[in-house]
Write a structure and sequence with these properties.
mainly alpha; 8 helices; 3 strands; 65% helix; 6% strand
């Protein structure tokens, strides 16, 4: 998959400006394809040059003019070729998972904090996907929409995003809890060891709490 296929797929819902396309990617498509706005603008120019999208200028009063893009028949043909191509397995890369992998040799506290923050972000994104799915259903219950709703593709893609965010939140919260419990237990052990050492020091360092007897001259 390339960025151009993701852009073409996003434009199937109707014409979009570059700005609107960036918002679309951030909301609906970030769970499977991330792109910076500048990348999208560059890709739109390339798609228009190749005849896969067409653009029209819209003059606006009191606001900058904008250019709206629509998929052409050639663009649809490109998506047909893309759909027929063999799908390669994806290979995720996640810095946070590397930190969890190495946490036995790292301070756990910052890793726990990052897991907690990732869970918070995932919960927020899940709420966004919930609202998107509700808007796509447009008053239909899910069973009815899945059976006969229009544009089922974006709905199924959003469902995948929702499932991913729920799973991410659950894993982050559970992993943070495990590490937090282990940190608490280790702290208790250190405090107990420190108290034992202090007690021995106060008792003269001998078992039974009795100071060692001095030899009689």
């Amino acid at each position: 998959m390339t960025l151009r296929h993701a852009v073409l797929a996003a434009l199937l819902d109707g014409e979009r400006s570059g700005y609107e396309l960036a918002k679309e990617f951030d909301a609906r498509m970030a769970n499977f394809w991330y792109a910076r706005p500048q990348q999208l603008y560059t890709e739109l120019s390339g798609l228009e040059r190749d005849g896969l999208v067409t653009g029209r200028q819209v003059v606006q009063e009191m606001r900058p003019n904008k250019r709206l893009f629509t998929v052409t028949e050639a663009g649809i043909g490109e998506l047909h070729r893309f759909a027929a191509a063999t799908v390669r397995p994806s290979f995720p890369r996640d810095d946070l998972l590397v930190k969890v992998q190495a946490v036995d040799r790292l301070p756990a506290v910052p890793v726990i904090a990052q897991l907690t923050e990732r869970a918070r972000i995932a919960a927020g994104r899940a709420e966004i996907f919930d609202r998107l799915l509700e808007r796509l259903r447009d008053g239909l219950d899910e069973a009815a929409f899945l059976a006969s709703g229009t544009r089922i593709g974006p709905y199924l893609a959003c469902q995948r995003g929702l499932t991913f965010e729920h799973e991410t939140r659950a894993w982050c919260e559970r992993t943070a809890a495990v590490l937090r419990d282990r940190e608490t237990a280790a702290l208790r052990d250190r405090e107990a060891a420190a108290r034992t050492a202090d007690d021995r020091h106060q008792d003269g360092g001998t078992p039974g709490g009795m100071a060692a007897a001095r030899p009689v001259p």
